[in-house]
Amino acid sequence: MSQPPNRRPENPKISRELFVLTYGALVAQLCKDYKNDEDVNKCLDTMGYNIGIRLVEDFLAHSAVKKCRSYSETVDVIAQVAFKMYLNVTPTVTCSNRGGNEFSLILDKNPLVDFVEELPAGRSSLCYCNLLCGAIRGALEMVHLAAEVIFLQDILQGDDVTEIGIMFLKKTEAKKHKKK
What we know:
By secondary structure, this protein is of the alpha+beta class. It has four helices and four strands; from the N terminus they run H-H-H-E-E-H-E-E. The protein is globular and about 45 Å long. Its main location: endoplasmic reticulum.
C-alpha cells in the first residue's frame, strides 16, 4: 500500500539550521530571564539532563548497539554513534587518566554554534552548549552510569576546539526486586 502524497513521514527530521536557530533563541531567552551566567548554565544542564533521560530510549531503539563492557566502549558509542545520529558530527575521543574513567570528546566543529560568533556582552562565563553536558549525563544515568560531564574548552570562549570532559563516578546499581 502506498502513502498518500500529502502525508508526512512518521519520523520527520527538522533541518539542522532550524534546530540551531531555535536553540540560540532558547539561550537568548534564558539570558534575559536570568541575570547570572551560573543560573543559565544550570538551567541548560537541567534541560539537557531531561532530554538525555528521554533520548536514551530512542537511541537504544534505533542504534542497535550492544551492551558496552567498559567506560571506553561507552564513550566510543557516544562519540561515534550518538553524536553522529543526533548532531551529525563525530568527536575525537581521548582518555585523560590511567584509571580509565576520565575521557574527553573533542569537537573540531560544534553544530550548535554555527550561527554564533561570540557570547553576549557581559556573559563571559556562559556555557552556551551546556545542554549537551546535561544530555550526556542524563542518558548515562539511565543506563546506570553516574558521570560528571563538563565543558573543558569552548570555541566561544576563544579555544581552538570544543572539549567535553566525562568522568565516570561509579556504576549505579539497578534496583533488584525481591521475589515474594
